[in-house]
Structures are given as structure tokens and as C-alpha cells.
Amino acid sequence: MDKTKCPLPNSKPYMPLNYINRAIESIRQGTAQKPNCIWLETSTCFGEIIALLDGENPGVPFLLTDLVNMTFFNSIMTDSGEAAYERILNTINSGEPYIFIVSGAIPLRSEGRYTIIANYEGRYITALEAVQTIAQNASYVVAAGTCASFGGPTAARPNVSQAVPLNQVLDRLIINVPGCPVHPLWILGTLAHIVNFGMPALDEQNRPITFFGLTIHEQCPRRSFFDYGIFASTYGSPECMFKLGCRGPVTRTQCPINRWNESDNWPIGNNTNCIGCASFGFPDLMQPFIRY
Ligand code: SF4
User: Fold this and answer.
1) DSSP-assigned letters across all residues of 136-196
2) Which atom of ligand 1 is nearest to 268's Cα?
3) What is the per-residue pLDDT for 14?
4) Whose CB has fewer CB within 10 Å in the chain, the N or C terminal residue?
5) In this predicted model, what pLDDT tens digit does every residue of 61-94 receive, in sequence order?
């Protein structure tokens, strides 16, 4: 066996898919309603959308056609200009419930003009204004990714746009689904939980416990090396990377189970340590990423 490849821990439940399959079944049977949904990208690197586009099981078409009624998605929609912004207005004024997903942080400098999301009737609509307007009547607000949840790289030093996470501009409960980028299954799983059961149980950082209840360290295929005190001194070695700076002990995600791109692909599986990208304070508080 290639010791640098981590075996998939099949003994663990594949929870996001369980929720997603149940939600789709409930919608088909008419026992649950497909909710309206607005996905707004603010100040970020597009990573959440790239990861979502790379998801295959289920993929973006499933999200757009089966799980929710996506009324606005600024990265994946045909309308542009004022017609696109009117999709937001129509959704929030429809009287129907909707879920509001935000990927990205919110710049505050210069009254928020570092991120303009629309030019409507001769007036610039900043991300700050849009987020506060859309969140008012939303049934649920979901922060997708570390920038929306905690500030992330967008709010990292020197933070020239004075970007902040969603919870600093909204006075309401926000479901934080961090990750840089967030795994598509954690976002779709959270949406599916809302469709099935409503608000998920959240931890002290408002993350769904189902997907963020365990540290990477608790699920890591290299954990036995850690327990026996056997540590890698260089990259490429199969042992525990704690002494190279691994942040798995303080990072709560399902990376070891869900992995990426429908493959073995995840940082420790690819011989690089966890850098804590889903943790509060990433990246500033997680540096240096590598220690020798
Ligand atoms: S320190 Fe990192 S590599 Fe070592 S067992 Fe924990 S998560 Fe795995």
C-alpha cells in the first residue's frame, strides 16, 4: 500500500449526502417545499463558486434545479445590470420565504464603495447596503466560506478595504459555514438540513455541529502516528505533520471524510499540513503555515 495515500474512512457516516438525499425526496413527495434562495457574492476570490462548480455528487445543476429555487446568483445567471438587481427586489418583496447565502466579506471603508454589486436607477448599490437589505426579510442567512463567516483572507492584514465578516454588519443569527473554500457538500448539506428540519444545531461559532463537530485531528488517517509520537520532519513523509505546523488539532471540518473533487484530494492526503483555513482568525492567526 502507498503509505502517502490516506484510505477513505468508510466507517464514518457521509452526513451531508444523507441530508441532501432526504431533502430531495421530501420535495418530490411534496412534504417539504423548495425554498427561494439568493446567493450574493461580495468581496472574495470566487473560491466558493469554483468549489461548487467542481462538485459532482451532487453538482451545481442539482442545486439550481432540485434543492432550491435560486432566484439570484450573481456568478451564475443570465440576467445582468438592472434586470439582475430586480431579481433580488422581486424575491425580497414577494412575501415568500427565502434563504440568503453570502460568500465574501463586506468592505466598510468609504461607505462600502470598495464592492459595488449593482448600479440601479442611477445609484450604486454597495455590498454593505445589499446585504443589509436582503437579510431583513430572509428566513435564514448563511455565510458561505471563511470570508463571510470570519473575515478570512479578504479581511487579513493590512485589510485596506476594512472588510468585516457578515456578523459585524447584521444584527441577527447567521449560520457560519466556513472553509477556504467551503466544501460544496457543507453548503448543500446545510441547505438540505434547513429544507428537512429547519435551523441546524450550531456550535459556539454558529457553525452546524453536524459538519463542524469534530476536528480534523480526530478524524485524521495519520492520527496513530501522532499518538505514538512519530512525526514527519519533511514533506512527503507519511507520518504526522504536527511538527511541520499542522493545524488539524484546532480545525473543525469534515475534510478527511468529504475530500475534494470526488477524489483522494485533501491537504493531508496530498502531503501538506492543514493550515486551518476554516478556523476563526485564518489566515493571520494561523501563520506561519509551515514550521521546520
Ligand atoms: S497533527 Fe495533523 S497530520 Fe497529525 S494527526 Fe493531527 S491532523 Fe493528522
Assistant:
1) TT-SEEEEESHHHHH-GGGG-TT-TT-EE-GGGT--S--EEE--TTPPHHHHHHHHHHHHH
2) 3
3) 52
4) N
5) 888 888 999 999 988 899 999 999 999 999 999 9
pTM of the model: 0.93
Mean pLDDT of 262-291: 93
222 lines ligand 1 (CB under 6 A): yes
Strand, helix or coil for residue 27: helix
Q: Which three cell numbers stand for residue 1?
A: 500500500
Mean pLDDT of 179-193: 94
Can you read off the three cell numbers belonging to residue 122? 442611477
Residue at a domain's end among 210, 229, 254: 210
Within this chain, do residues 200 and 238 fall inside the same structural domain, yes or no?
no
Domain-ending residue, one of 210, 237, 256: 210
Same domain? For 221 and 88 the reply is no
Residue 142 lies in a domain: yes
Cell 450574493 belongs to 40
Tell me how many domains the chain contains.
2
Indicate whether residue 241 lines ligand 1 (CB < 6 A): yes
Question: What is the position in ligand 1's atom list of the atom closest to the CA of 225?
Answer: 5
Give the structural domain span for 31. Answer: 15-210
In DSSP terms, 144 is beta-bridged to: 177
| Residue 170 CA, ligand 1 centroid: distance in Å | 36
- One-letter amino acid identity for 108? L
Is residue 276 domain-resident? yes
pLDDT tens per residue, range 220-276: 999 999 999 999 999 999 999 999 999 999 999 999 998 987 777 899 999 999 999
